[in-house]
């Protein structure tokens, strides 16, 4: 059978995305009050093994996928870049074929998106995008679940994104195209999301709006999103230039007061005083830890979708 890969939201239908979010919510509600280490009652993935391949450091992706698989009754095999022959130059195609003989699915968190797509092309089991430099689909589904828990259905609502037009913003654009909400972006001109992504969204009549100011993007939004300004791979000169460019896009209390009692989201790790004021991320509108928890529930729904065959 051809494996079902979870690579980008743009590969999915609106119906599939909606089903994954709804399944995550139902699973979360069904195990309310249980210790985290207790498996779900049905254990639908008993006997299944998930490889977790990390080319980059991780906290939430690593723990949420490991916990998700365990709660579904399965098990995980943790593999870091330096633990594998990849670190010595083994072709990705060989790694994909070998892992496909050992495990039932592969989650990969890597840099170049091409690493993900090559693994998927060569693997005979499902491959899941835990993060690439291009996109972060698991995160956005957790964000949508979190928003809907606090503010109701996302359809037709205004969502704001401030700062870098990065991999997280790309997946937000994909989601807006599928779930019919307005995405307002306030980003510096030199840091806009890729033009091919914007063209893809325009072909689908997505409601993607570039705002002239952070204030315009946030005004009456039900959710305000941002991300860190500096990547682990940025050198000091690049980091200084990025910080200067993003300074006007810091999420402040004054900005949040312009929203429609909006919730604040951040995929974490966050740097208080840079992209967000401490009084915002630690304040009453912040839902960042609900958002982090919901990574677990979304990963479970993604895994179940992949294993449906």
UniProtKB/TrEMBL annotation:
Pathway(s) annotated for this protein in UniProt: Amino-acid biosynthesis; L-arginine biosynthesis; L-arginine from L-ornithine and carbamoyl phosphate: step 1/3
GO CC annotations on file: cytoplasm
Residues that, per the record, bind L-ornithine: 167, 227, 231-232
Residue ranges annotated for the Aspartate/ornithine carbamoyltransferase Asp/Orn-binding domain, each copy included: 155-306
Xref: PANTHER family: ORNITHINE CARBAMOYLTRANSFERASE, MITOCHONDRIAL, ORNITHINE TRANSCARBAMYLASE, MITOCHONDRIAL
Subcellular location: Cytoplasm
Molecular function as annotated in GO: amino acid binding; isomerase activity; ornithine carbamoyltransferase activity
Keywords noted in UniProt: Cytoplasm, Isomerase, Transferase
Reaction(s) catalysed by this chain's protein: carbamoyl phosphate + L-ornithine = L-citrulline + phosphate + H(+)
Keyword match Metal-binding: no
Amino-acid positions noted as binding carbamoyl phosphate in the UniProt annotation, renumbered to this chain: 58-61, 85, 109, 136-139, 267-268, 295
Record-given protein name: Ornithine carbamoyltransferase
